[in-house]
Design brief:
about 15% strand; about 55% helix; five-stranded mixed sheet; alpha+beta; about 280 residues; single chain
Length: about 280
């Protein structure tokens, strides 16, 4: 009874009876073994505690190092984006003046140079958007989807765009405009001469389905599953940097939606592509 109450130092003493003597010795051996196990357990707990403390210190040190590295990388990226943007802006301005002043083959060369400079500027824009989307910790807020779409369509005055939508508020942030900038821009750029673009918004209860379709060459079935991968470029001389659709996917997932590639005409990819995605409606 004394041992059962937790006094492991109590020794049983029996003066008579061989069976009781052996029982006392067995209980004594069991108690000694139990005490040794308890001591080893306490030693293991101390070792584990020391290791945990050292591990926490190492984690704090590594975290501080990573934060410092991230601050340095962000600073370098800001400087690079700022300086390259300034250089591109100046170069694009001078090249446009050259195009107006030149003729024939020289004008064609200047136009090609302008195209590459604009391509460089687009890459820097994608990098800025990519970083901003990664660092954005702001909560999602109601965004006027109709206003965002109409504003982006207005940025392509020469494109043939048909819009079928309605006023609706969705959960997103200011970067939602980048999704339409990429999708409409890709359709206009890669669709070929005379491409027609359609933007549709369909009410699906608690969410909306948005489609950006074009009458261009379409996207083959073999590459549909890869177009949203980072640095996955298209084919041909007009292939982009491989970041635009990746950014679209990342933003739509952040908003709680899904995005995928389809055919404008089901089963006939050669008749144009359709990028579709869902957005949650705001209350």
């Amino acid at each position: 009874d004394t041992i059962a109450r937790g006094d492991l130092d109590h020794r049983i003493r029996v003066s008579t009876g061989a069976e009781f003597t052996r029982l006392a010795e067995s209980i004594g051996a069991m108690v000694d073994s139990l005490k040794e196990n308890i001591q080893r357990l306490r030693a293991s707990e101390e070792t584990a505690r020391d290791y945990s403390n050292r591990l926490e210190d190492q984690v704090r040190e590594r975290t501080a190092d990573l934060e410092e590295s991230n601050r340095a990388a962000t600073l370098f990226l800001d400087i690079m984006v700022h300086d390259i943007n300034n250089a591109n802006t100046v170069a694009i301005g001078y090249t446009q003046l050259l195009i107006e002043a030149l003729e024939g083959e020289q004008r064609e060369m200047a136009e090609k140079m302008l195209s590459r400079l604009e391509h460089s500027a687009a890459i820097i824009g994608c990098v800025s958007t990519f970083r901003e989307s990664l660092e954005s910790g702001s909560p999602l807020v109601p965004i006027d989807l109709d206003r965002v779409i109409r504003a982006e369509i207005a940025n392509h005055p020469t494109a043939r765009i048909r819009y079928e939508g309605q006023p609706v508020a969705v959960l997103a942030d200011d970067l939602l405009a980048e999704v339409f900038a990429n999708l409409i821009g890709n359709a206009a750029k890669f669709g070929g001469p005379g491409v027609e673009i359609a933007v549709r918004v369909e009410d699906r209860g608690e969410e909306v389905l948005v489609s950006v379709e074009d009458t261009g060459p379409g996207i083959p079935d073999a590459v549909k599953s890869d177009v949203f991968r980072r640095f996955q470029k298209g084919d041909g001389s007009l292939a982009g940097a491989g970041l635009g659709l990746y950014i679209c996917r990342m933003l739509i997932m952040r908003y709680g939606g899904k995005i995928w590639v389809a055919d404008r005409v089901a089963g006939r990819p050669e008749e144009g592509a359709a990028i579709r995605f869902t957005l949650r409606k705001a209350a």
